[in-house]
Amino acid sequence: MMQTKEVKLKSYKASQRTSLILSYIALAILAIIWLYPILWIFLNSIRTEFESGQLVGIVVSHYIPHAIGFDNFRALFTETLFPRWFLNTLFVSSISFIISTLLTLSVAYVMSKLKFKARKTFLNVAIILGLFPGFMSMIAIYYILKAFQLTQTLFALILVYSAGAGLGFYVAKGFFDIIPNSLLESARLDGATNSQIFTKIVLPLSKPIIIYTALLAFIGPWMDFIFARVIIGEANKKTWTVAVGLYNMIYGEQTDSNLFTTFTAGCMIVAIPIVGLFLSMQKYYVEGVTAGSVKG
Amino acid sequence: MADNQDITKKRKFRFLSVFAKIGKSFKKFIFRFKDGSLGTKLSHFIMGAGSFFHKQIIKGILFLILQLGFLALMIFSPQVNDTPFGFKAIINFFTLGTEAGSIFTPTDNSMLMLLFGVITFGVIGLFFATYFANIRSAYKADLDLREGKTPTSFKEDIRQLLDTRFHIAMLTPSIIGIITFTVLPTIFMILIAFTNYDSLHPAGQVLFDWVGFDNFIAIFNGTGEISVRFAPVLGWTLLWAFSATATCYIGGILLALLINKKGIKGKKIWRTIFILTIALPQFISLLAMRNLLGEFGPVNNMLMTIGLTDAPIKFLSTADSAWTARITIIVINIWIGIPYTMLMTSGILMNVPKDLYEAAQIDGATKRQAFRHITVPYILFVTAPYLITSFVGNITSFNVIYLLTGGGPTVPGYIAGETDLLVTWLYKLTIDEAEYNIGSVIAIMTFIITATATLLSYRRSKSYKEEDAFQ
Amino acid sequence: MKKVMLSALLFLMVLFGAVSCGGNKELLIWVGAESVDFYAAKMVEYVEDYNATNEKEFPYEVSVVGVDSSTAAATFLDDTDAGADIFTVPHDNLGKLIAGSSAIAPVQSEALLTQIANDNPQSFLDVIKGTVDGTEYTFGIPYVAQSLVLYYNTAYITEEQALTWEGIWEAAQTANKNAMTLTEAGGFNNSFLLLATDATDHSTTLELYTDGVQENCYALGDDTIAKMKWGQRFFMDENGGKAPSDSGWEVELRDEKTLSTIGGAWHYEAATSALGEDLGITVLPTFTLTADDAYGTATEGTVYKSGTFADTKMFVIKKNSNKAEYLEDILLFLSSKEVQEESFEQAANLPAYKNASTEFEAFEADTLDAQLARAQVEMFAWGISQPFGYNSKYNTYYYSKGAPDLFLEILENEDGSFSTDQAIIDQLTIIQSLWTTGLRPE
Q: What are the chain A neighbours of B116 within 8 Å (beta carbons)?
């Protein structure tokens, strides 16, 4: 009797160990699959194979480079306007993320915690507006900005990125919904105004969602190649953002893919800070995603 | 139960109730005019008069400036890009331009006329909103006086904005932004669907005009691009949205369970590896994918070296069969999409209520049983709303298709390729081909689909019902 | 928080103030990105010259910006105000720009009109004009020419072999590679077959908007069908020609999957990057009909020379510019023979000037650049100018209504459905209908 139990326990442990080993193997395979393309970009950025004095910038079929160095980065900084694009993007994203965050949080707070007449209407309109594909309205936005003499400026981009931020209140609202109303009620009884409740009680409790919102708003301009191309215009290379510049290196009219390695060098420079930022704020991102999705 | 009945009743009479509401406000309007003081009466004609009457000088000045500004705009019709705003814009909105121009003289820009018409209507709407606010404010001051209170000073108004009317202060900037950059452009876009604004009518060179529902009829009629390709593209869009949502959802949950499995070490590192895909801009990672999978890219090279295939496999835009490309896209989308679900599920796994497990333990359930009967249902229950957002998101997902295949393999003779979704088709039609009217029709159709999906599921979802009750 | 909000608002307002309204004192010129430096230097020269001869300051601030020519046309069409005072477009975009009341201004000055008439070959003169309201105007000022040439791998193909497609094909069979990859499957690149003409007398029955008339399209001649049949054999052979893979033609050339490609001057950089020292440049080859290809009057043994669109890039002037008099004078200078010659020497732009190959010394140089130029000039004899400038519709009908895909379908004949003459004729009928009406036949 005793023995069988021991055997059972042993076999249970053994099966658990094999299952654990299998899990590790599965994870390792998945990790390789996930890292394969990312690593390839990196390897291409340091690939410096020369032929008759020219960098072989086009895609090659071997994964591991035959020669490495930093010539692609040198080309990026000397032969393209990349430094300029980088500063442009930094400028746009640092301003637009402040505005966007303010707008998103204030709308989310109002929708979550304040009662007023048009609340339900606003909620419905916001959902409906979010469902229209944005490309068509790009033309209209372009000319509205133009009426204010703003097109082809970075400022126009800032406006475009942040003006609609109020519509993206859902995730933050989900987070605010979790904050107990009793907390706010007691503050109200103590004579606090709504603005005080917002700034003194709700905001200090909302670090994760503030960071989540800010993070997404900050990263947006680094990734957008659609709106930026239309608003800034392809002709004005000096006001391009990195996404537009890099995109045009590969997809532009009459560009050839011998710029591929230069492109990957640019990608690395863009990706490293973003990834760093992202990873360091991972915790908040997870909380934001969870709050937003669970509440819907 | 009673609540439900109430809702159905409400729905039935919603149409009537709109009229009832208008009638009511009109009655109120008349009543206020009769009942109000001289100032209130005057402010029906000169905005701010009521405020001046009640010595609310700053408020009065603000109202007056608004009215004068509005009138100036309407009467003087200032021009931007040679196209007027104001009352002329209203006329132009209906004619869409009359001056065809010649080689040396400019043509009316129908597109700008349409846009400025929409904007002018928007301005008129806003003006009336402030106009009524002006009357209400004057009348409220009247009532305050009658009750023996003094009308609010400007300072008090400001204070109210930070407290009882805080929502106004908080929402105004957003609403202004949303109206200018989302609402007006969206209305403009919808209106384009009723015009013949296309590649043969470039704005500012050739006039275009209203054509009613012609563009919508074209979907079901004729041999043009839209009638031939609409049904296939729509079908693939729906199929794509279903499969992309399902694969990423299931895959993400499985991956989260794998990483969070008891005994796995370095959970954070594993998670970080997968999060890299989220952090990396998609135009970078997708471009890498496209080149890796190219006919002569590293993946095919590897497959041929280890002898899995003899000839390179064409995975994407040049694939021999549409299904090869479609399946490849869905698989790559898994690579993109799984980390989101994984992250979310990980977050949820940490929050599974402990008491559920304790109860199960008391009942003598094994760990496996607890997992099957508690963890899994809990995850499914909590993430249900996410499925809707994710589905809608996939219908309008642009990057994956546009950057991987550009819609290819091509369907000979048509712009929309085998893997084009409604949105990528729309993009090609408007940005590349300048077929704005057809593009707009497709945008409206896309909206109808996403709206239906959202409404169907959203109305039923728990959070929306809770919303009704409002905490 | 309030402070943050306030400072953010302040910041916003400062920025609002900082946005300037763009003065009208600027004279903006867009040229191709590759020759910005050259034209910027020329404009400095021009302004100095102006100041010296007129003894007054040139009234505008000139800035020269590099914008790809098709981008320029597209940007300009979207928003004419965003365009430069002078910009460059490939001439096939002209139709779009002069549709309706036209977005660009016709050339008015006698001096410039005379220079254009004297300096350019007839084929260019035909395509830079447009008729608006019944009157014909000259809209473009040609300054750069371009046509398609053959880039090939000299390690596999000898100079002799490169003269005929059969030679290249043979080399490819020996090495078990592909003979040729198109740079793109679009309507521009298939011209090598479609526009191929009889090598002895330059004749062809193919018509593409002849004299700018919409109905003047004809793709059903015996020689066209025979060319399709030859092309089909060439494209169906595993060592023959092919459309580009999704890896791109550069990769194929670089990895020696394919031995040659048909490309324009703008593919030169990538071709050098792909082939390095093995790069050879020459005119497009000829091909000879076999018994299998012969059809009707196109008999076995007929030799065809690959054709091309022989194009010009040209300067155009924005319509409502208030600087018209200055602009035309600038263009008189920029499109002059001297500047074109310098542009060829310094920025490797193939001149549009008609006698360039005999009058310009640099043409004789033994460099790849000069070889590229010579090949292009030689190809002009075998090419036609894109006839799409007459009307914006033609461009759309020819490129965007699907004809190029249908054409490739015949060549690739993937499921064997174009193996019969009748199937080819049927498909060509659809193509012809798309060219003339933009629609498939009923």
A: 147
